[in-house]
Design brief:
mainly alpha; two-stranded antiparallel sheet; 192 residues; disordered C terminus; binds fe (ii) ion; 2 strands; disordered N terminus
Length: 192
């Protein structure tokens, strides 16, 4: 339950309202698996296809989260986590734009930096969804989350040290204790 709102959960947080949100994340993870496969084989058309999907479909999803979910983090004293997640969204946008700018019809002029950007996008999207599902959502629903709560299945363990399942979410202090009572990270502290 949100501390400042003892009534029913806002529509954006009700399970029926979240079904589409969860489904989108599952679709995104499948797209990221496609991207990983394409990167493993330097299949640039596949990389471009996955990045175009991020550009066209993920961006509106991120905007909805910024408008409907992230402000609620302020109410539970976790505004810093919202800021970190917003920075993730900005980085996703920058990476996607750079990748699409460097690719035309599946042809890539400079494969090395192109591949590095796409790999970073892959890791970022995976760890970002992991954090939202296993850290942000439990916090907003007043449940908190512990590492034991978070499944460590394929697609969720990503960037070492950033996975909510492995080490707590970026807004947690101390790392690894993802609970609704944990305060915001002090200003200037590095994300986990
Ligand atoms: Fe997000």
């Amino acid at each position: 339950m949100l501390p400042s709102d003892p009534g029913p959960l806002p529509p954006a947080l009700r399970e029926d309202g979240l079904a589409e949100w969860h489904q989108f994340h599952q679709d995104a993870m499948a797209r990221m698996s496609d991207l990983a496969l394409a990167l493993d084989h330097q299949g640039w058309p596949g990389v471009e296809r996955a990045c175009r999907w991020v550009h066209e479909a993920f961006h509106p999803h991120n905007q909805w989260e910024e408008q409907r979910l992230f402000p609620l983090l302020e109410l539970v004293g976790r505004g810093q986590l919202g800021k970190q997640l917003k920075l993730d969204h900005l980085e996703m946008g920058d990476l996607t734009q750079a990748i699409l700018d460097g690719s035309a019809g599946g042809m890539v002029a400079d494969p090395s930096p192109h591949g590095l950007r796409a790999r970073r996008l892959l890791d970022l999207v995976r760890q970002h969804i992991d954090t939202e599902v296993h850290c942000m959502l439990p916090l907003l629903q007043g449940q908190g989350a512990t590492p034991a709560d978070a499944p460590a299945g394929e697609g969720y363990l990503t960037t070492p040290g950033r996975s909510a399942a492995a080490s707590g979410c970026p807004g947690c202090a101390p790392p690894g204790t993802c609970s609704g009572s944990a305060p915001d990270r002090p200003a200037g502290a590095a994300p986990g």
